[in-house]
Design brief:
The complex is a heterodimer of chains A (101) and B (169). Chain A has 101 residues and is mostly helical. Chain A is 77% helix and 0% strand. Chain A has a domain of 61 residues. The longest helix of chain A has 31 residues. The termini of chain A are far apart. Chain B folds into 2 domains: 85 residues, NADH-ubiquinone/plastoquinone oxidoreductase chain 6, subunit NuoJ (Four Helix Bundle (Hemerythrin (Met), subunit A), Up-down Bundle); 40 residues. Chain B contains 7 helices and no strands. The longest helix of chain B is centred in the middle third of the chain and has 25 residues. Classes of the chains: A mainly alpha (101), B mainly alpha (169). The interface between A and B is large, with 76 and 90 residues.
Chain lengths: 101, 169
Amino acid sequence: MAPITTLHYLVVAAALFILGVIGVLTRRNVVIILMSIELILNAVNLNLVAFSRMWGLHGQVFAIFVITDAAAEAAVGLGILIAFFRNKETVNMDEVDLLKW
Amino acid sequence: MQPVATTFFFYFLSGITVLSGILVITRNNAVHSALALILGLLAQAGLYLMLYAPFVAGVQIILYAGGIMVLFLFVIMLVNLERAQKEEQFNKQWLVGLLAAVALGGLLFAVYVKGGTLFTEHIAQPVENSNTQQIGVMLYGNYMFAFEIASLLLLVAIIGAVVMAKKRI
């Protein structure tokens, strides 16, 4: 079989990214939308690490920073979700319309 | 050490990753989605190991599969998802969203087909024994400022999460 190149990893990462985008754009449940965002961030991380095999360790350091951001985003996002659930008793994205007039 | 059966492991792990990604965005039950996401994250840690990135693989398992996903599962238990499970799972603009995502996928596909020569193999000599050490040196050398900013970001995130989730400030 053909050897595995960087392009193979990029294609897997692109597939993950597209799945995450589909999840964010089509689902109603906020928890699953946040998980789709994690999918997107993971796709980016896979790209960074795949390129780091070619161009040195900078990609891996950047992947660690992306993981840090993902942790911060998940904590704040889930906090917002709990605050929202306390107000409206729902977790559907299209019912987040307090600022709409 | 020369890697063995690279092709098999690559297709196996990336298959698990993509399949669990599909499960994440299609399940009704958020707990099932979270478990599928954990499986995908673990498979992705395997892919990192294949790319000679053991430290990132360890961080992925400890922080993502161990930390962030536990946070997700806790919030799923705190929030009552019974009602959301019985309702419509996809919003009204799902067709437009799907088309936009497919267009983006086509764009990426075109880039990878036309620009395949841009990604020529330029394998840097992979470091086998001192990966963690070198990442540490870079974090405290080149990326010192970004590292401090990241710690500040985490502090802000802690305070923000507490303020958001607290009933009365």
